[in-house]
């Protein structure tokens, strides 16, 4: 797939046989780079907050930056574009249609404010200290803290990687960062839902250590329409 990426979507990196990423730079200027929050702060005890400085977790390599969108983030339209293009592949497959088909930029902003929005961004070069790297946002994942009978959990949703960048490990990297985010908040469980029809996606989640813990049935349907997966941290 990496050889077929259309411009401006160049491969952002790949793993060779050793499991390491190879360095592949993008060559497009990016007018959309936005300031990011600083690195992770100290962990804390007490009630689990929905947001806060302790959530400042990020995963940085030369070719990809995964960060929590901070207050200065202004690329919600790009996030919506990624969601729409990534979920378009499910049109006609999942029933009922994904909520992403009805999602608006206002909805993206609302969801980002209700919890945390993680973005994966290509990096042209490592940013000098104190400066922001330039790149394109190519993936996203939203999280929010929820609670059930077993205590708090971090619910992850709207996971999407730009189709031109899929299959390069970005989805895994987003989940690695969410795991760090949960750990920083002292939350021991991650959950995500997947539509029942998407068997490859179920394998993707179980491959990352999730197991099915329940089902969900949309209003008006008699059979489960989604599976709930959980990973204990
Ligand atoms: C699900 C989704 C986010 C995965 O993103 P991704 O970046 O392609 O995921 P990854 O590359 O980390 O892993 C996916 C597969 O790509 C392959 N892959 C991973 N790294 C790779 C690499 N460096 N080189 C080649 N292939 C690779 C693997 O087959 C991997 O599956 P595995 O779990 O068996 O290893 C993406 O397919 C997507 O946006 N789908 C549409 C939206 C969607 O369904 N969201 C989930 C709703 S719950």
UniProtKB/TrEMBL annotation:
Biased composition range(s): Low complexity: 41-55
Keywords: Acyltransferase, Transferase
GO MF, one example: acyltransferase activity, transferring groups other than amino-acyl groups
Disordered, as annotated region: 1-59
Pfam (any one): Acetyltransf_7
Domain annotation N-acetyltransferase: ranges: 66-233
The protein, known as: N-acetyltransferase
Protein source organism: Hwanghaeella grinnelliae
Taxonomic classification: Bacteria, Pseudomonadati, Pseudomonadota, Alphaproteobacteria, Rhodospirillales
């Amino acid at each position: 797939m990496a050889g077929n990426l259309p411009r401006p979507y160049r491969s952002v990196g790949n793993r060779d046989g050793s499991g390491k990423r190879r360095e592949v730079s993008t060559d497009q200027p990016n007018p959309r780079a936005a300031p990011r929050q600083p690195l992770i702060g100290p962990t804390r005890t007490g009630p689990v907050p929905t947001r806060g400085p302790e959530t400042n977790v990020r995963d940085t390599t030369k070719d990809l930056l995964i960060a929590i969108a901070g207050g200065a983030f202004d690329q919600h339209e790009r996030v919506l574009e990624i969601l729409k293009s990534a979920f378009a592949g499910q049109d006609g497959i999942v029933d009922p249609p994904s909520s992403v088909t009805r999602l608006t930029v206002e909805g993206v902003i609302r969801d980002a404010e209700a919890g945390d929005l993680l973005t994966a961004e290509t990096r042209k070069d490592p940013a000098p200290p104190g400066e922001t790297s330039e790149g394109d946002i190519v993936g996203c994942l939203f999280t929010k803290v929820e609670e059930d009978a077993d205590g708090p959990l971090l619910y992850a949703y709207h996971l999407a990687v730009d189709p031109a960048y899929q299959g390069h490990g970005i989805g895994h990297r987003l989940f690695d960062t969410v795991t760090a985010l949960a750990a920083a908040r002292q939350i021991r469980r991650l959950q995500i839902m997947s539509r029942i029809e998407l068997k490859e996606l179920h394998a993707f989640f179980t491959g990352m250590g999730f197991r099915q813990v329940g089902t969900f049935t949309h209003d008006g349907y008699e059979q489960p329409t989604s599976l709930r997966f959980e990973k204990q941290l």
